[in-house]
Amino acid sequence: MSIRFLGLIILFLLPGGLIFAKTLSEKEQSDKYQACIASISEENSNAVITAKKWYVEGGGAAAQHCEAMALYDQNRFEEAAGLLEIIADKVSRGDGIGVFAIKNKTLLSAQLRYLAGNAWRANNKLERAFTIYTTALLSLDDHPVFKYDFYIERGTVQIDREDFQSALDDFSYALELDEERIEAFLYRAETYRKMNEHLKARLDLNQGLSIKPNQPDLLFESGINYRMLREDMKAKKEWQKLIDKFPDSDWQKLAEDNMKLISN
């Protein structure tokens, strides 16, 4: 199970902050960008063509960003990742962007690399995703408050690479930045499980559940943890909470399936 919270505001969406060529008014730029993004869910088959045409007409990096999001939505992850990296490099250099974007280019380029890293990971290019997240983290040394999400994503890549100790390190770095969010507790607990460190996982799950007692990822993982600790009744209790709180959902089915394993 997984959860994802970007936690950063994509600066493309801020009025006056769009990185367009100055051929249209700010309102026209904003409207065109939002229409392009909306077209991804409404008419995805045409969204890439529309974005490419807009780029030729002077849409700049905003048009490319829309194209990249459309490619991602079509599961064309490698193309999306490559394009997002190109835009991130442009923004970090300040090429063809507006005054607002120039003032915020470090954060904006980091966010674009975050999206590129997600796309590389979706394409199972784990080394590339790791490199992109690391580049973004280094660029944010002067903005540590924004690092949490990058540590979470890089940590999950480390899990996929089966580099569990490095994953633990990343989740611990995230917790040093913010102990009020649950992702790091959840993912560190999952990592400890893979390392057969079930008592350490229990501590993280307890911390996460103290913040969000009914968060389904935590409840499910908590049940798994109790099962690993041979406390089957406690495991059933956690999964019963999922059934009670999320009826007629995938969570209910998942909990019921796991409870049957105990019964058998």
Q: What gross morphology would you assign? A: elongated
Taking all Cα atoms into account, the compactness measure Rg is 21 Å
The name CATH uses for the topology of one domain is: Serine Threonine Protein Phosphatase 5, Tetratricopeptide repeat
Structural class: mainly alpha
Largest sheet, in brief, is:
none
Describe, in plain words, how this protein is organized in 3D.
With 264 residues, the chain is mostly helical. The chain has a domain at 1-146: Alpha Horseshoe (Serine Threonine Protein Phosphatase 5, Tetratricopeptide repeat), CATH 1.25.40. The chain contains 13 helices and no strands. It has helices at 26-42, 44-73, 77-93, 99-103, 105-122, 126-139, 148-160, 164-177, 183-194, 198-211, 216-228, 232-245, 250-263. The longest helix is centred in the first third of the chain and has 30 residues, at 44-73.
Task: Please describe the topology of this protein.
Layout: H1 26-42, H2 44-73, H3 77-93, H4 99-103, H5 105-122, H6 126-139, H7 148-160, H8 164-177, H9 183-194, H10 198-211, H11 216-228, H12 232-245, H13 250-263
Q: In a few lines, what is going on in this structure?
A:
This protein has 264 residues and is mostly helical. It contains 13 helices and no strands. The radius of gyration is 21 Å and the shape is elongated.
